[in-house]
Design goal:
Two copies of one chain form a homodimer.
Chain A: H1 3-17, H2 19-29, H3 37-56, H4 60-83
Chain lengths: ~80, ~80
């Protein structure tokens, strides 16, 4: 496979799944006090707009990556709202 | 301006600057216990690889967005390592 493509895929995988450990941590500890609500709202809103943009330009990798990110950030945001 | 381009720029701005409030919060409170170190390391590594990818394909917006993100995530990661 093309090394440039592989580099892009590694970068995308890391940033797409980055919020998985954060959501697991929040589920386990039930503590989210140190998380910035503004950061989570900006990420959530930004990702929804990335999904709209991905649909507009019919870009499947962009759509897929952001739908996965959306799941983990939504879990983290819901827990932040719940636990404060 | 093209509405598709505007949508992409709004999405990019939100996700690029999302870690600014998180780094400000960590600086102010000196508490980072609820942040996932794994998440921060995945983001930091992912963003470095995005920068390499951006350089490989000579994509200035990708480079610019990830260099800005890198600054805020690096600050947050350093504070996480410092405060635990």
């Amino acid at each position: 496979m093309d090394p440039v493509l592989i580099t892009g895929l590694i970068a995308a995988s890391l940033t797409t799944f980055a919020f998985l450990p954060q959501s697991i941590r929040a589920i386990k500890t039930k503590h989210t006090g140190d998380l910035s609500l503004t950061t989570l709202i900006m990420l959530e809103t930004g990702i929804v707009i990335w999904i709209i943009y991905g649909a507009m330009i019919s870009n499947i990798p962009l759509l897929a990556a952001n739908i996965v990110s959306f799941i983990f950030i939504t879990i983290t945001l819901i827990l932040k709202i719940k636990y404060g």
